[in-house]
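Notebook B, p. 112. Complex prediction, attempt 2.
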Amino acid sequence: AQKITQTQPGMFVQEKEAVTLDCTYDTSDPSYGLFWYKQPSSGEMIFLIYQGSYDQQNATEGRYSLNFQKARKSANLVISASQLGDSAMYFCAMRARNSGYSTLTFGKGTMLLVSP
Amino acid sequence: ETGVTQSPTHLIKTRGQQVTLRCSSQSGHNTVSWYQQALGQGPQFIFQYYREEENGRGNFPPRFSGLQFPNYSSELNVNALELDDSALYLCASSLMSDTQYFGPGTRLTVL
């Protein structure tokens, strides 16, 4: 079984500062994928970044980077130069491959508030 | 390129009723997954459809059922609604097991 743990219920950051959102995972599968999604108050889950378990380099997408430490089973999201529009819930998720299909297992999320 | 759309946006039902939620997948995607997100929780996988067949299911009772159509759009049906079914229902489309892209969700309230 796969499990995602996000231990920070809420994080506060000032505009233009960097922030790290923590995510640890547990799986027995040698091949897996890790995702971060952003969910504003409107409800839509917005894909941010993806890291494959065999990727040698940490993934980056604009202001988002994923600090992937495989031995520690962690996949932290780093947001550089925070903006007011970054205020939202952030979910870490793992893609599990079952027999013939793949699903996403989500953590409980971290609420990020960016202040001026 | 059209993204994932869902309808309706909001829905209010009473216990025991039945509901149908709809999802149009993103252009080029052939797989649709449905998730239930209770308040304050992460989404929970309900089931997945690929080529009009259910090819995976989470821990949800049979009163949760679905369909996928030839154009890859999908429906989620819930029979005999219970109060605990109140949640945000999210649909995600993908090209097989690639990255899932989500729609805006349908917020269901069961009274």
